Amino acid sequence: MNSKFILKVISILTRILLILVVIAAAFLIGRKSYEFGYRVFAEEPMTDTEHAKKINIQITEGMSNKEIANMMEEKGLSRDARLFYIQMLCSDYKKTIQPGLYILSTDMTAEEILSIIGQVNEETKKADSDDSGQSSSKDPSNIGK
Predict the structure, then answer these.
(1) What's the rounded Cα separation, in Å, for the pair 86 and 62?
(2) 133-142 pLDDT, tens per residue?
(3) What are the residue boundaries of the structural domains of the chain, listed by start?
């Protein structure tokens, strides 16, 4: 066998191996991204109702949403601070978190927790609809149509 032929075979095998590595990496990244995105909207509570614990949290004036998300993970109300932060950004409560002392439970979902620590009123909904050009309020007469 001649050395040019061996080099050509090695070059082709190297390219095939590189393509397979890129495909595997894309598959793994896509799978992790899908799982994270799914969890944003379907994350289960930390515990079931039977094993729930009540936890006191203090939200102070000036706390950022990231600090609140980190606190939720530290206190055992969320599995992942990054996930809770994204859930907060996707909710109607991202700009309405109120300082105060709250008693929360480990059997609450992120949406339930956010509805307690945040307040959405008609003024907030109107401001959000003015920002996005669409109203965030729902007309109950359209449900099921």
Answers:
(1) 19
(2) 443 333 333 3
(3) 49-119
